[in-house]
């Protein structure tokens, strides 16, 4: 809302009276430079702008800001003029590098109405600042702007307006600490230029004028604005002056790693650098109709500062330098609705920008350790504070060198003090000062600067400088016929960050190998790291999680290996979803060729699932479609049949094939290297130390270990849903979530629950430990030997051995062959050694032993009593205890602060049903817990959600505890009906806004295993559920009938609901889910004229996201029953 609009609404429509009042309003607020209230927008502050509630009449709301040093408080009202920001009610985006606002995408100027709105707001600011202007001049200028926009969809700012806007944009820049100089900004108006040559001349003048022989001057050059139907004028460089970064074949960088990407752009356009450490990059500028042109920066315009130190003579010998003028070149100037994509501007350096960031950041020049060694500092431990001491000395060097050569620079303490003065001035003049604390606080000695202790408010004011997409990413490269892009322009920041820590190692002649992993349980990561230890003997190897991988790096890979598991119904694990989405996008766009990339894929899964290893298969096929070269047939590791042995065999073959492919010599001892690095327990590599003063808090500790948002929930009750005499037992667990924060979910989501191992098993393992290690009151931590010194091993937090065995480690799952191999190395009896090695090497023997015994770690120790397990062995080698996932059985608003689970108690007997009884570690835990806290988290299942269009039919198919998610569905439907006022629709027709809901439910016996029977009956009576179809597999005197059989009997209903765009939801074990797929295809076949159409129809259901599965595995064959 503008000042003029306020006067219109508050003071009426009489033009003369309004002009008089507007003049009074403008005059009243001139002392504040402009009136914040004059620009309030209804939709932003939800303010009723009637006379009774007008902000001008009744005042403005404010935010209190406190200085924690002197307790001084001020009230910010300027923020009420803020533009919308990127933050939302769930998270703050202020720490993102991209900031809280952003430039509009290229291609066209703002729509006329939006442009006029911003032009009016800017014009009012301009005329309020010019006390000599009359109101008539304001209205005259406003009419001129409106006429120009109406005719040309754009208008021209006067030179005075442009200069005012540029200075004001600097004043509004919340991330700049040096804004106290905003009035001194010099403006070079270059809106007249038409060619890249003219742009080059303007840039030369800018650099010469700004440098001023070392007495730097703040300056901005503004090129023509964005226009409809015309390419933007752009300066492609990040800054006017930047050092090149030359990416080497071995992964190293000569020069500035931050500029590798832009250096590659320059090289693609024909520039050839000298390959030095401090080569200034050329200017790349583009103008409408010309495309990008490369111009060398005249050396005589570049003021370089050679770095030396007042005390260390060797510092000068390092050959370091930096340039004098820091000029941001790639931001967009947004003023009065007009956008200027090319507007480079400069101030001068704060010393810590060079000394702490440019020279010492790990992804930049990273000279920290090199300087530390020259200073004789101990770099083996962070406790010596060697990094802090180095940063101070480098900053001293920067200040000393710039001052010695009479080049303008400011230290971070002075900059912070002047900013506090600026903030005080702004508070008096404008009622506030936008400030981003994260950027204002210096990167060194932060807490001894005054800005550290000052509360700040971050918001966006116009005019402004905005981030925008890199010019070379927006440019249509097909316009340049003589430039062939061999690769997609890719960011190498993460690879460079990794490499910067390995610069001291001799890896210069090795081919790069990238190993990606994605896993729900951690097994794929374990396999990937094991593979990495083998490949690093011949390759420059990096192991990285898929969610941390930059997909744009793919075009620069040489050897690329993927180790991944499959989740649910063939989906990627959670940490592989983003990678898969981006990889699929590359395939769809067909813009990347990976013909130079050689790859291999090893997929982990369980053959009991219909989509066995589906994610790995999809990755393999997609890489082939992108023309990458497959080195070796994809490995398929079956959890039910020798997964580790299969992996070991595949890895050895991969290593040989990869070495031969790159003409490398295969190490004669590579098999021994691999097996030793993977399976041998080195007791001298680890040690345990007792620690004191540690207080346990399981929730944050589990959060760190598993990297998930884990929250405490208290068990309110557990109710058995079947009679005691039933062979199966299912319980309803009610959890209270009052203590949990950010614990939101939707129907269909899962709850991940961390169980506690049975104390009986824990006690048996502790009994095998040495007596002095059994002291349960001792809190211990693990240290590992790295390069001759002991460092903390951060796999688990310091804790007692009982806590580790109870809470963190998986001691009930049968040990994998790797663990058996490690135990064999500790066995003193030869018979124990031979038997353990046999189990490791013979897949058939291992699987038979595992299925027959299903042994826990305690069982293995008792079967092989000569093995020895120390505390260090337990804490470093036993796999982590993984969460168990359960479908949530309640709608979010059904019961306030409650989550319900429907859980089948797992129990079975080993040794073909004749051996000891086993219990599910988590289900038995939940069955014994009223009144205790359970640690859990929400796992979102985007593929198992109710249709957004509630009018579509829903077919729910479940067996046993597979009914769990459907309870959340029908509760959600009942709540939605109540919200519409349909509190009881008994004997009434379902509102047309809701589709039919039918349930097919399979269980053992009627009246015994028909859980939620009364709840379902009531829902059918109310019309919320249209019908429930039961299938009983062990009903006395009746033929066995499974849920898929009943589904086929009701084929006409299924066909009708599918024809109405219905959705099918299946929840149950993998065997049942596979049978449902087969039954549905038979039903679809009966509705088609040709047999092959049923497969196509089913695939279409999948493609349209109308067939949903929530599938779980079978714990043990003796527990497997059809329903």
UniProtKB/TrEMBL annotation:
The cofactor binding remark recorded in the entry reads: Binds 1 FAD.
Keyword hit for Iron: yes
Write the record's keywords in alphabetical order, separated by commas. Answer: Calmodulin-binding, FAD, Flavoprotein, FMN, Heme, Iron, Metal-binding, NADP, Oxidoreductase
The reaction(s) catalysed by this protein are: 2 L-arginine + 3 NADPH + 4 O2 + H(+) = 2 L-citrulline + 2 nitric oxide + 3 NADP(+) + 4 H2O
Its EC number(s):
1.14.13.39
Q: Which cofactor does it need?
A: FAD; FMN; heme b
Please give the InterPro entries that the UniProt record associates with this protein. Answer: CysJ-like_FAD-binding, FAD-bd_FR_type, Flavdoxin-like, Flavodoxin/NO_synth, Flavoprot_Pyr_Nucl_cyt_Rdtase, Flavoprotein-like_sf, FNR_nucleotide-bd, NADPH_Cyt_P450_Rdtase_alpha
Principal EC category: oxidoreductase
- Asked whether the keyword Iron is assigned, the reply is yes
Q: Which domain of life is it from?
A: Eukaryota
CDD domains listed in its UniProt record: NOS_oxygenase_euk (cd00795)
**Which Pfam family, an example, fits this chain?**
NO_synthase
Where is the Flavodoxin-like domain positioned along the sequence?
513-655
Please report the stretch or stretches of sequence annotated as the FAD-binding FR-type domain: 708-947
Q: Which family does it belong to?
A: Belongs to the NOS family.
> Function of this protein?
Produces nitric oxide (NO) which is a messenger molecule with diverse functions.
Q: What is this protein called?
A: Nitric oxide synthase
What organism is this sequence from? Answer: Limulus polyphemus (Atlantic horseshoe crab)
Gene name, per UniProt, is: LOC106478486
């Amino acid at each position: 809302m503008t000042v003029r609009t306020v006067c219109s609404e508050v003071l009426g429509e009489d033009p003369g009276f309004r002009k008089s009042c507007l003049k009074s309003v403008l005059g009243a607020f001139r002392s504040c430079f402009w009136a914040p209230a004059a620009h309030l927008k209804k939709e932003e502050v939800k303010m009723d702008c009637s006379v009774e509630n007008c902000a001008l009449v009744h005042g403005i709301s404010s935010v209190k800001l406190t200085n924690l040093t002197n307790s001084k408080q001020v009230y910010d009202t300027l923020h009420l003029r803020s533009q919308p920001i990127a933050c939302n009610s769930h998270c703050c985006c202020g720490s993102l590098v991209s900031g809280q606002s952003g430039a509009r995408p290229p291609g066209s100027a703002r729509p006329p109405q939006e442009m006029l709105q911003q032009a009016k707001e800017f014009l009012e600011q301009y005329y309020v600042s010019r006390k000599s202007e009359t109101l008539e001049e304001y209205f005259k200028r406003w009419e001129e702007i409106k006429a120009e926009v109406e005719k040309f969809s754009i208008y021209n700012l006067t030179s005075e307006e442009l200069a005012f806007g540029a200075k004001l944009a600097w004043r509004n820049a919340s991330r700049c600490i040096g804004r106290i100089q905003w009035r001194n900004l010099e403006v070079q108006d270059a809106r007249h230029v038409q060619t890249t040559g003219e742009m080059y001349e303007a840039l030369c003048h800018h650099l010469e004028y700004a440098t001023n022989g070392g007495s730097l001057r703040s300056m901005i050059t503004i090129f023509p604005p964005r226009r409809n139907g015309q390419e933007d004028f752009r300066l492609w460089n990040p800054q006017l002056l930047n050092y090149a970064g030359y990416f080497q074949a071995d992964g190293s960088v000569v020069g500035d790693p931050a500029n590798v990407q832009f250096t590659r752009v320059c090289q693609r356009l024909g520039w050839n650098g000298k390959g030095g450490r401090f080569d200034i990059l050329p200017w790349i500028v583009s103008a409408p109709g010309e495309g990008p042109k490369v111009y060398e920066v005249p050396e005589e315009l570049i003021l370089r500062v050679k770095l030396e130190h007042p005390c260390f003579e060797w510092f000068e010998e390092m050959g370091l330098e930096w340039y004098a003028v820091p000029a941001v070149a790639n931001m967009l100037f947004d003023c009065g609705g007009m956008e200027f994509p090319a507007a480079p501007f400069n101030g001068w350096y704060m010393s810590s920008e060079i000394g702490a960031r440019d020279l010492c950041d790990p992804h930049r020049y990273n000279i920290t350790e090199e300087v530390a060694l020259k200073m004789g500092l101990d770099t083996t431990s962070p406790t010596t504070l060697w990094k802090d001491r180095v940063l101070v000395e480098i900053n001293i060097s920067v200040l000393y060198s710039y001052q010695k050569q009479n080049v303008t620079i400011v230290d971070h303490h002075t900059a912070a003090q002047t900013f506090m003065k600026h903030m005080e001035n702004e508070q008096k003049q404008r009622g506030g000062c936008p400030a981003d604390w994260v950027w204002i606080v210096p990167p060194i000695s932060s807490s001894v600067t005054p800005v550290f202790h000052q509360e700040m408010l971050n918001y966006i004011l116009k005019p402004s400088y905005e981030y925008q997409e890199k010019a070379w990413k927006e440019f249509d490269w097909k316009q340049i016929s003589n430039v062939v892009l061999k690769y997609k322009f890719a960011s190498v920041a993460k690879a460079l960050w990794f490499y910067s820590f390995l610069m001291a190692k001799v890896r210069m002649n090795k081919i790069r190998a990238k190993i990606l992993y994605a896993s729900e349980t951690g097994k794929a990561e374990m396999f990937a790291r094991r593979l990495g230890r083998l490949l690093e003997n011949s390759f420059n190897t990096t192991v990285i999680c898929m969610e941390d991988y930059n997909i744009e790096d793919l075009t620069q890979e040489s050897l690329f290996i993927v180790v991944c598991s499959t989740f649910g119904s063939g989906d990627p694990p959670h940490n592989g979803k983003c990678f898969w989405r981006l990889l699929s996008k590359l395939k769809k766009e067909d813009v990347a060729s990976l013909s130079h990339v050689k790859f291999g894929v090893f997929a982990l899964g369980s053959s009991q699932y219909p989509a066995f290893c589906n994610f790995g298969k999809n990755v393999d096929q997609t890489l082939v479609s992108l023309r990458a070269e497959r080195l070796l047939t994809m490995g398929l590791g079956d959890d039910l049949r020798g997964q580790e042995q299969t992996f070991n065999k595949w890895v050895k073959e991969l290593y040989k094939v990869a070495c031969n492919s790159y003409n490398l010599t295969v190490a004669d001892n590579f098999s021994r290297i691999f097996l030793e690095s993977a399976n041998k327990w080195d007791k001298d590599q680890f040690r345990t130390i007792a620690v004191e003063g540690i207080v346990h808090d399981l929730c944050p500790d589990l959060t760190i270990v598993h990297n998930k948002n884990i929250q405490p929930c208290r068990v309110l009750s557990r109710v058995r849903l079947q009679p005691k005499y039933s062979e199966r037992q299912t319980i309803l667990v009610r959890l209270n979530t009052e203590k949990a924060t950010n614990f939101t979910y939707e129907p269909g989501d899962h709850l991940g629950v961390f169980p506690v191992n049975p104390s009986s098993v824990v006690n048996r393992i502790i009994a095998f430990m040495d007596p002095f290690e059994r002291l349960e009151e001792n809190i211990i931590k693990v240290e590992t030997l790295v390069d001759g010194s002991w460092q903390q091993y951060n796999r688990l937090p310091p804790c007692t051995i009982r806590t580790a065995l109870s809470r963190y480690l998986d001691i009930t799952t049968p040990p994998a062959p790797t663990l058996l191999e490690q135990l064999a190395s500790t066995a003193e009896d030869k018979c124990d050694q031979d038997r353990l090695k046999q189990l490791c090497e013979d897949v058939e023997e291992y699987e038979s032993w595992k299925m027959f015994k299903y042994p826990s770690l305690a069982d293995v120790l008792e079967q092989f009593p000569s093995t020895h397990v120390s505390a260090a062995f337990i804490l470093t080698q036993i796999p982590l205890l993984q969460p168990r996932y359960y479908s949530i059985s309640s709608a979010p608003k059904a019961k306030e602060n409650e989550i319900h689970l429907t859980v089948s108690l797992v129990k079975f007997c080993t040794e073909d049903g004749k051996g000891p009884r086993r219990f599910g570690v988590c289900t038995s835990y939940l069955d014994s817990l009223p009144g205790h806290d359970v640690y859990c988290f929400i796992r979102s299942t985007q593929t198992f959600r109710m249709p957004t269009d509630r009018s579509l039919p829903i077919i729910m198919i479940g067996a046993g505890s597979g009914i769990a998610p459907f309870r959340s569905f029908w509760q959600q439907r009942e709540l939605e009906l109540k919200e519409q006022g349909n509190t009881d629709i008994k004997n009434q027709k379902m509102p047309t806004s809701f589709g039919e809901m039918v349930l097919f439910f399979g269980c053992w016996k009627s009246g015994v295993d028909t859980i939620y029977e009364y709840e379902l009956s009531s829902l059918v009576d109310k019309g919320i559920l249209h019908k429930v179809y039961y299938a009983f597999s062990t009903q006395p005197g009746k033929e066995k009938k499974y849920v898929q059989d009943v589904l086929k009997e009701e084929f006409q209903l299924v066909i009708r609901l599918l024809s109405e765009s219905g959705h099918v939801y299946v929840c149950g074990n993998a065997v049942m889910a596979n049978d449902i797929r087969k039954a549905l295809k038979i039903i679809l076949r009966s509705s088609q004229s040709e047999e092959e159409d049923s497969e196509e129809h089913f695939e279409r259901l999948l493609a349209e996201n109308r067939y949903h599965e929530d599938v779980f595995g079978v714990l043990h064959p003796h527990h497997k029953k059809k329903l």
